[in-house]
Specification:
It contains 20 helices and 28 strands. It has 689 residues and is an alpha/beta fold. The protein has three domains: 331 residues, TIM Barrel; 109 residues, no CATH class; 213 residues, TIM Barrel (Alpha-Beta Barrel), CATH 3.20.20. The chain has an eight-stranded parallel beta barrel, surrounded by six helices. An eight-stranded mixed β-barrel has the order 20-21-22-23-24-25-28-27. A four-stranded mixed sheet has the order 16-15-14-18. Strand 23, helix 18 and strand 24 form a beta-alpha-beta unit. The chain is elongated, with a radius of gyration of 30 Å. The two termini are 53 Å apart.
Length: 689
């Protein structure tokens, strides 16, 4: 990364979206340092135009010539039966010069790293990374960059950056989701389309009625677009984000028009450069904020979560859709950035010495505003031998006119010098066809040299193997459990203990345990055969939430059997604590359904003792994944055993539970012969009560 002005300020990457080939050209022409785009598969914007393989190859080459990096989004969850398509799909993009991939699925991350170690791996915001421990875990898994959850404050981002050292990419402009990206099942449940598959139905943009009881007993009703957040515009916060050390500024919007991409990119390019040139005089003009508001934005713009936790002022209650943009503004953007390709300035020097081959030198001129401003690249090519003129000698204007014909190429000439025309009285001669051929060869040679030495400053990352769980054969923590009941309050726990239901495992929410640790002993005293007791951790653990990592330290002191893990931050923190204790696993780690295991490679990537089968997959999808685990175990030398029972959906019977909580029954395994005495790994199936 290039240092500018002070060591503490680094020039950030400006990362623009491209939902189409035209959008990518517009982003590059408007000053983007990098562009992210999706292909025909595995993209979280399945309804964007996206790129064909041929378009992408051309666009990647064009970007590389201009020192612009390209990232392909593979930011969806991948089913078992789709894994075989991944590497063939990705291969043409890599051959074209792709710089990196943005990934949500841990199984995909592992496969890409194995097959294309030269690619940068970026952890998508769909992973909902909320702290430094999660970032460090992904760094160990091979990621050079993390895109944290959009809900984090500037303070939390600083802590993550300082504590992990990994590259951070933060959103600065575009649409905001009501829920944490990657954790939202709203569209899947309401609209039948999963956001984790790139098919979000935008359920939060619909109107809703909120009904609540008043003190008088009558209901009060409010209506509007109660879940529709205003769009983000962090332009006024650019100095703070740069001072915080954010490495990449990301613009959202692959579903939007090329005019949006180009127009927004140009404004952020302007202000990033202005701040770096003169921080003291940084000021955002009202007309530029107005211009941004006019480019496909919802209602008023907001600065997001960087300085607030939440608030009703972030919701656009009356306008869920985008405001239209004036045709005058759109035409201006099209004329500036979308009517042609950007060209690279070059200097030309022609040497025409009688009796020697004609020589043409092409040299690029560096762009000081580019993050990856390439070193000056030059090539020299030689052509036909220069002759002494017998009739009409070459004139300087004639040579320059011929050499500067660069239309249709990726270059334009800013200066052309001709040497040798006056070395004798009669002058020199070279056929026009020879001059044209000299120019064509020089252009091709320069383009090839730029592509071969394209800047690809991938940060050096020590790819470490994350230690697998310390299983112990015969350990009581991995004994079979048939019914797992989760409770979130003391009232629900009391209802369970009064019911005839016999749970083999009870997981209790963190807040009841923090408020009343004696619940653990009460359960053990109540049951003749006490169940396993787990602490069910929050779905999101952050520096600024009610339950934070300090509370996990307290829970580690309690006599519980294990933890229900719901995000990578919690998992990484507990693994780090385990490493400090000589790697001895004392408590079972159970991954809840929010730690997605859609394929067997994702299961293998998670260092846990047991996992919950995904809520959005069918019985058939579960069966395919579990069969793949069985096949893997039968032929690989992994030090974990995966025991599987025959998978038949009709065998699963749900039992009513009066507290109306989720029920889970552990999916235990059918015994099959093993030559080694490995411990057992278990699976849980979520069942709604």
């Amino acid at each position: 990364m290039q240092l500018l002005q002070q060591d503490r300020i680094r020039k950030p990457e400006l990362l623009a979206p491209a939902g189409s080939y035209e959008g990518m050209i517009g982003a590059i022409n408007a000053g983007a340092d990098a562009v992210y785009f999706g292909g025909s598969l595995f993209s979280a914007r399945a309804f964007a135009q996206n790129f064909s393989t041929e378009e992408a190859s051309d666009a990647i080459r064009y970007a590389a010539l201009h020192g612009v990096k390209t990232y392909l989004t593979i930011n969806t969850l991948v089913k078992e039966q789709e894994l075989g398509e991944l590497i063939p799909f990705l291969t043409p993009y890599v051959r074209a010069g792709l710089n990196g991939v943005i990934v949500q699925d841990l199984g995909v991350l592992a496969l890409v790293q194995e097959n294309f170690p030269e690619l940068e791996l970026h952890a998508s915001t769909q992973m909902a990374i909320s702290g430094k421990y999660g970032a460090l875990l992904l760094k160990r898994l091979g990621c050079v960059r993390v895109v944290p959850a959009r809900e984090l404050s500037l303070t939390e981002l600083k802590i993550m950056k300082e504590g992990s050292g990994v590259d951070l990419e933060a959103f600065i402009h575009g649409a905001m989701c009501y829920c944490y990206s990657g954790l939202c099942l709203f569209s899947s449940i309401i609209g039948g389309r999963s956001g984790n598959r790139g098919r979000c139905a935008q359920s939060c943009r619909l109107p809703y009625h909120l009904v609540e009881a008043s003190e008088a007993g009558r209901s009060k009703e409010k209506s509007g677009y109660l879940l529709s957040l205003k769009d983000l515009c962090a332009l006024p916060l650019l100095p703070e984000l740069m001072e915080a050390g954010i490495d990449s500024f990301k613009i959202e919007g692959r579903m939007k028009k090329p005019e949006y991409t180009a127009g927004v990119t140009a404004i952020y390019r302007k202000y990033i450069d202005l701040y770096l040139e003169d921080p003291a005089s940084f000021h955002v003009a009202k007309e530029d904020l107005s211009r941004l508001s006019s480019l496909y934005m919802r209602s008023q713009i907001e600065t997001g979560y960087y300085h607030r936790h939440n608030g009703r002022e972030m919701v656009t209650l009356s306008q869920p859709g985008y405001s239209g943009s004036s045709e005058t503004l759109l035409k201006e953007i099209r004329d500036l950035y979308l009517t042609g390709k950007k060209t690279i300035p070059v200097q030309m020097t022609a040497r025409l010495t009688i009796g020697k081959p004609a020589e043409l030198i092409l040299k690029t001129v560096a762009n000081e505003h580019s993050l990856r401003a390439m070193d000056e690249v030059s090539v020299s090519v030689r052509g036909e031998e220069v002759q002494e003129a017998r009739k009409a000698p070459l004139q300087e204007e004639q040579v320059i006119r011929s050499l500067k014909k660069l239309g249709g190429t990726n270059f334009h000439c800013i200066s052309c010098t001709v040497e040798g025309l006056t070395e004798n009285r009669t002058g020199v001669f070279l056929p026009s066809a020879a001059l044209n051929e000299l120019r064509r060869r020089a252009v091709a040679s320069l383009e090839e040299k730029i592509l071969l030495q394209k800047d690809n400053p991938t940060l050096p990352v020590e790819r470490k193997e994350v230690p697998l769980p310390s299983f112990h054969a015969g350990n009581e923590i991995v004994r079979k459990a048939n019914l797992h009941v989760s409770v979130e309050s003391e009232e629900q726990l009391s209802a369970l203990m009064r019911s005839p239901l016999k749970a083999d495992r009870i997981s209790i929410g963190v807040l009841p345990l923090l408020q009343n640790p004696s619940l653990i002993q009460n359960i053990r005293s109540f049951y003749k055969e006490p169940p396993q007791i787990f602490a069910a951790l929050p779905f999101m653990t952050r520096e600024e939430t009610e339950v934070d990592l300090k509370d996990l330290d307290f829970l580690l002191q309690l006599p519980i059997d294990g933890f229900v893990i719901r995000n990578l931050e919690e998992l990484a923190y507990l693994l780090a604590k385990e490493e400090k204790e000589a790697g001895q696993r004392k408590r079972m780690l159970l991954a809840d359904a929010s730690l997605y295991c859609w394929n067997h490679r994702a299961v293998l990537a998670l260092p846990v003792d047991a996992f919950t089968l995904p809520l959005e997959l069918s019985f058939h999808d579960w069966g395919r994944m579990l069969a793949a685990l069985r096949e893997f175990e039968s032929r690989e030398f992994e030090s974990r055993e995966f025991e599987l029972r025959e998978f038949e959906s009709r065998e699963f019977e749900s039992r009513e539970f009066e507290s109306r909580e989720f029920e889970s029954r552990e999916f235990e395994s059918r015994e099959f012969e093993r030559k080694s005495n490995f411990p057992k790994r278990s699976y849980e199936i979520p069942v709604y009560g």
